[in-house]
Please model this.
Amino acid sequence: MRILLTGSEGQLGTCLKERLPVEWELLACDSQTLNIIEAQNVLKIVKIFAPDLVINTAAYTRVDAAETEIKQAFAVNATGTLNLAIAARTIGARLIHISTEQVFDGRQRVPLNENMAPNPLNVYGQSKLAGELLALNAHTYTTIVRTSWVYSEHRHNFVKIMLKKGLETQNIRVVDDQIGCPTYAGDLAQIIIQLAKMKQYQRGLLHFAGNQQMSWAMFAQQIFALAAQQDKRYRKVKVEPICSADYQSAAKRPEYGVLDSSTINKLVEERVVYTPLAEVISRLLA
Ligand SMILES: NC(=O)c1ccc[n+]([C@@H]2O[C@H](COP(=O)([O-])OP(=O)(O)OC[C@H]3O[C@@H](n4cnc5c(N)ncnc54)[C@H](OP(=O)(O)O)[C@@H]3O)[C@@H](O)[C@H]2O)c1
Model:
């Protein structure tokens, strides 16, 4: 199988590169080699490499900055996604595109399934929803995988931020009234590979997130409890749970973003074995 991967230096892109079967032919493109905003270049590269499957992990992911960089967020997350869908359609390749729980407004208090209506609260969510709709309209063979609270050993994420902060300060204020499911990028990569292997093509929306729901403050507490087992400097860190109203951020975020992953888990042949947070923390502190 020939795979064209975008955003290859991001969290998910890196995890996919590490896990894709070695016998698959991979063209891994970072933002320099393939800027997905550039429609003509996207089409050119897709035509030359002629992949069976395009996996789009490239995205504008700075949720707060998106509130002011609206044009840039939409250029990448909406137009960039459309460019890839059109290019994939032109050569008859499938597209797997990644989206977010932030397309929802968080007013529902039951796990969010694929049939629930989106209603994004912030520019990032709006731009990601636009990307979903554009890709689904442009190309029949499009699968959208929505996920949430992604962390990994790579790039910028909540786990790495907490581990760094924990060495700088002992009292850390963390929001306690937003609930979601932290998702290890390696687990998400595994489920994407399983989707890629499926003979029966799955069009439309799918949800996949980690299997534990919690608040950001609870997540931080878990991170420090596990880190303290390996490095005693983390024993002194205290997490102070606060309300979103007491934490200044440009973008409004959904209070509830728990994704129901049951459809995708029933669909794939091998159930995903969720990687324990302890394993990731141990690798980060090694
Ligand atoms: N991170 C989360 O918590 C989270 C939650 C839910 C959903 N998601 C979705 O999951 C997917 C993967 O996220 P991630 O955490 O792996 O993101 P990430 O680490 O921020 O990586 C995104 C990648 O996209 C690249 N990129 C940005 N603009 C681009 C452009 N115009 N053309 C090509 N590449 C471009 C970035 O490259 P540069 O750094 O060089 O710009 C970066 O390598 C995204 O679709 C994201 O929306 C993420």
Observations:
- The pocket of NAP is lined by residues 6-7, 9-13, 30-31, 34-37, 57-61, 76, 80, 98, 100, 128, 147-150, 155 (CB under 6 Å).
- The chain has a mean pLDDT of 97.
